[in-house]
Amino acid sequence: MRPVNLIPAEERRGEHRPMRSGPVVYIVLGALVAVLVGVTALVLTGNQISESKSEVARLHREDAVASARAQRLAAYTSFRSLSEQRVATVTSLADSRFDWERVMRELSRVIPPYAWLTGLTATASPEASVGSESGGGESSGAGLRSSIAGPALELEGCALTHNGVAGLVLALKDIDGVTRVGVESSALPEPNSGAGAATGTGSASESGSSDCRTLGFITEFHLVVAFDAAPVAPSGEGEEAAPAEAAPAEPAPESSTAESTPTSSEG
Using CA atoms, how far apart are residues 76 and 262, in angstroms rounded to an integer? Predict the structure, then answer.
């Protein structure tokens, strides 16, 4: 038969006494677990903070080393920058140079025998000012010159006829680099100016005037020769010149006074 313990459970002793349980035990266990988790998190956070501080200290040391090295190399950096600036300046000046000696040599070769010059002005830009000592006084080609951003020649002189001026314009186009030739004016002498004396020494020459029209059929001209394709020196104010449309030159009768309107011909 199976034995049955008839003693009440609360009065039993020894190994046969049942374990007492209740909510207090679980509360205590939960508190212990929470304390354990908090301590663990605190320890891990402290370790991370220590590692971060060590990393910051290491980066500060590396930054100090890099700064010291940069200061030692600052002189070389400044020298390199200065060298590059000077090379750029020299290159710009070399690119913007214009061979005036070649232009003058070719000009002396292309001028026809029926035309001659009394004044010549050569400028690299319209902003350049040149004191004119020629007989022509101030350059009358300033209007056309201001529309040319690059180098240009301003020519003053005389030709035997209006057709001679047209021939000179065609001859000037043979100069290497010329893109267009503008005619500021081409005029015969006034009927009452005293020019046209049979001896060729009219009152204009006797009075010391710069007018080269000593005969009634001689035409005085003012031309502007443009070199638009030539490199232009850097400038903050210069504007590119707009090529003017070509207009055919009409020869005027030799016995009358005629003054042509400013025109230009594309080269």
Answer: 58
